[in-house]
Amino acid sequence: MRTQVAIIGAGPAGLLLSHLLEAEGVDSVVVETRSRDYVESRIRAGILEQSTVDLLTDVGLGARLAAEGDRHRGIYLQWPHERQHLDFVDLIGRTVTVYGQTEVQKDLGRARDAAGQPIHYGVTGTALHDLDSEHPYVTFTDAEGTQQRLDADVVVGCDGSFGPSRAAVPEAARQTWQRAYPYSWLGILADVAPSTDELIYAWHPNGFALHSMRSSSVSRFYLQVPPETDAGMWSDGQIWDALAERLGHGEAGWQLTPGPITAKSVLPMHSFVQQPMRYCRLFLAGDAAHIVPPTGAKGLNLAVADVALLAPALVALLRRGDPGPAGAYSATALRRVWRCTHFSWWMTTMLHTGGAGADPFEAQLQLSQLRWVTSSEAGARGLAENYAGLPIGF
Ligand code: FAD
Ligand code: DHB
Predict the structure, then answer these.
(1) Ligand 2 lined by 220 (C-beta under 6 Å)
(2) Predicted TM-score (pTM) of this structure
(3) pLDDT over 90 at 249, yes or no
């Protein structure tokens, strides 16, 4: 097989890249280890920044998003006896939209079907070759068990945090930074109407909690738990009790409504950055190059921002022979990556507490910071700009 761009990974980064390239007349082939069903049903992110919504809309992927996405003006930040609203529209004139990654993935899948995009699901043994030559290629075994070779002008690693692309860059040519946080999130999905109009991020001495949602009848919640937690260690009753305690803010008149839990999983919390995001004929995008802890809702948005930058750079390279934008891709993308890495680390460390062995000094610093970002316009604007407001190309 031969194509212009070999894309490894059919997550949001890989499929959106193939969509953007096709619109500019550049062809690509996507290879993916998982099945299409698996990719479209795995529950992950739920919040789209306005720049993500604008981009998806501009490239013809906005119809269902406009009809079913729920636009929010802001978020609540809370701690015991306080629940404060930050209004992003008032602060910076931008909104966020609740629309699950599962739905983005389905919209992308349908659009790629309509375009006749070649996507090989269920492959094994993906390997990258000759990246430092003019003729890189990818090998894999397809779902029928046939060994395949895909020749390309460039290879793009959109294969997330477990794929082979990031390690295909020779060690001497890459630098990495990472941090593991001493807690995980227990995430649940429940068939119950949200007990809030907008997301609640709650600081609590027992640990962080987040009330999010997917629709008017489906709610999404997260609880800070110790890193070695197994989802099965928490019964449904224990989960609802902990959520009610951590999300209750001590004021009369607010109650959490429980409902049937339909999914339960534990997410580890990491920061990771690998740079540069380009090595010869290999480009990295999305989680393949960087991971953020989920507290700032940045992971999916960052993957979209990467490919929004990479697609025109590849079009310039492959259609016009102009290497300039591709040469600038890594440095430009990394500015936003580090901004989001900082913001996600900052939100995470401001909101997660130490549980039993908590440092009381740190808790006071966190509470002071929460009071500042919710009472000072400068503090609130800073949070709003990072959460909702970074333009594509920042
Ligand atoms: P991915 O979506 O990971 O896609 C990579 C694709 O590459 C996958 O489909 C994978 O199967 C495929 N692949 C891997 N190896 C190979 C191979 N060898 N050959 C071919 N294909 C391969 N972000 C938030 O903002 N909020 C959240 O609540 C949130 N929850 C998350 C929960 C989980 C369990 C995870 C893992 C991530 C979560 N994220 C969240 C992060 C967000 O979902 C990611 O940032 C986003 O999916 C990145 O998109 P991507 O396309 O770069 O990577
Ligand atoms: C969701 C996940 C996040 O990490 C976040 O900060 C907000 C919402 C969600 O899955 O809905």
Answers:
(1) yes
(2) 0.97
(3) no
Catalytic residue status for 249: no
Q: Is the peptide bond before 276 cis (omega within 30 degrees of 0)?
A: yes
Q: Are strands 147-151 and 137-141 parallel, antiparallel or unpaired?
A: antiparallel
Mean predicted lDDT score pLDDT of the chain:
96
User: Is 120 a known active-site residue?
Assistant: no
Alpha-carbon distances, residue 226 vs 185, 230, 234, 241, 354 (angstroms): 8, 9, 12, 17, 10
Ligand 1 contact, 43 CB (< 6 A):
no
Residue 165 — φ and ψ, nearest 5°?
Answer: -65, -45
> What distance in angstroms lies between residue 50's CA and the mean position of ligand 1's atoms?
21
Residue minimizing CA distance to atom 32 of ligand 1? 44
Known catalytic residue at 387: yes
> For the chain, which domains are there?
5-69+99-178+270-348 (3.50.50.60), 181-269+355-388 (3.30.9.10)
Q: What is the pLDDT of residues 119-138, one digit of tens each?
A: 999 999 999 999 999 999 99
* CA-proximal residue: ligand 2, atom 3 (nearest): 297
Ligand that lies nearest to the alpha carbon of residue 41, given by its number in the listed order:
1
Find the angle CA(120)-CA(122)-CA(125) to the nearest 5 degrees: 95
Q: What does the pLDDT read at residue 244?
A: 97
Catalytic residue among 137, 183, 201, 222: 201
In ligand 2, the atom with minimum distance to the C-alpha of 299 is 4
